[in-house]
Amino acid sequence: MSNDLLRFEDEYLARYYSKKTINIVKGYMQYVWDSNNNKYLDMHTGFGVAFLGHRNPRIINAIKDQLDKIITVPLTFYNETRAEFIREFMRVVPSSFGKVFLQNSGTEAVEVALKIARKITKKAEFLAFLNSFHGRTMGSLSVTGNEKYRRAFEPMPYKVRFAPFNVVDQVDKLVTEDLAAVIVEPIQGEGGVNPARPEFLRALRQVTRERNVLLIFDEVQTGFGRTGRVWAFENYGVEPDIFTAGKSIAGGLPIGVAVVRREFGDVFEPGEHGSTFAGNPLVMAAARAGG
Predict the structure, then answer these.
(1) Which residues, in sequence order, are bridge partners of residue 256?
(2) What ranges in 153-224 are assigned the alpha helix state H?
(3) Which residues contact 48 (CB under 8 A, 6 or more apart)?
(4) CA torsion sign, 139 to 140 to 144 to 148?
(5) Do 227 and 248 contact (CB within 8 A), yes or no?
(6) Can you point out the beta strands (E) in the chain?
(7) What is the pLDDT along the chain (291 residues), one digit of tens a residue?
(8) Cβ burial, residue 39 (10 Å; 0-12/13-18/19+)
């Protein structure tokens, strides 16, 4: 690609990332190549989505096969490819969880988790933690504890209290009955790769249960084996009420998932939530192949 063509990105594409001066043209498994045919070991992986490698043959073959069938089927209709993904996905989810909410990204998964918490509890406030990161859409940004992401957009739409991460002796004071939910990363990613202390998560679980407050684990960055278990919370022996996942599930295609405990059921009435592209067969085929 010529520099003349690349300048159209600079001229017309809105810039909200710091751009690297590398033109990536192809990738295969753990490697990518630029327009000068320089080969790189990809440790960026597209913010973590190419966890199974670029153009993983198993995923590519599944996508090609699905392209010959159908690409888009909304959630208002059944689809076998989607059902096959859900069957495979639930095999790696603890049996206490019973419903999956399909979305298009991690931030959307957090958005729906917050909506679920408000719907179930009929309460509106949240507790989150300093240096956390949960996304950039307005709801997920509200519970993101890194001020640099929120500053330009305040006031936020959700009322959120922020507390120090991993401070066990503050949990009893901070988790109050007026909260809809506490949202926490088992390992803070953007905050500096800070693992939660087991006693911290145990305290959150105990107090939230006692006070009818839901506990949400954001596993978008930690899920799918990144910590040695399928879900990071399995390392702690603590189960949330809701957890979110995303990034690597579909081998590079956009996906997000929120999973709720079995007793909550479907949560929403028809029309209270929706997503045009969520659960489309192309992404479902990729996600099933990558499972």
Answers:
(1) 103, 246
(2) 171-174, 198-210
(3) 221, 247, 248
(4) negative
(5) no
(6) 24-28, 31-34, 39-41, 97-103, 125-129, 160-163, 179-184, 187-188, 194-195, 214-218, 242-246, 256-261
(7) 467 778 888 888 898 888 888 999 999 999 999 999 999 999 999 998 998 899 999 999 999 999 999 999 999 999 999 999 999 999 999 999 999 999 999 999 999 999 999 999 999 999 999 999 999 999 999 999 999 999 999 999 999 999 999 999 999 999 999 999 999 999 999 888 999 999 999 999 999 999 999 999 999 999 988 899 999 999 999 999 999 999 989 999 999 999 999 999 999 999 999 999 999 999 999 999 987
(8) exposed
Which of 252, 231, 287 lies closest to 27 in space, CA to CA? 252
Q: Give pTM, 2 decimals.
A: 0.95
Token pair of 235, please? 């390392």
CATH topology of domain 58-290: Aspartate Aminotransferase; domain 2 (3.40.640)
Are β-strands 214-218 and 242-246 bridged in parallel, bridged antiparallel, or unpaired?
parallel
Which amino acid is residue 148, in one-letter code?
K
Please report, for the chain, the start and end positions of each structural domain, with discontinuous segments joined by +.
3-43, 58-290
What secondary structure does DSSP assign to 4-70, as a single string? HHHHHHHHHSPP-SPPPS--EEEEEBTEEEETT--EEE-SSHHHHTTTT-BT-HHHHHHHHHHHTT-
Q: 274 is written with which tokens?
A: 């929706």
Backbone angles phi, psi at 103, to 5 degrees: -135, -170
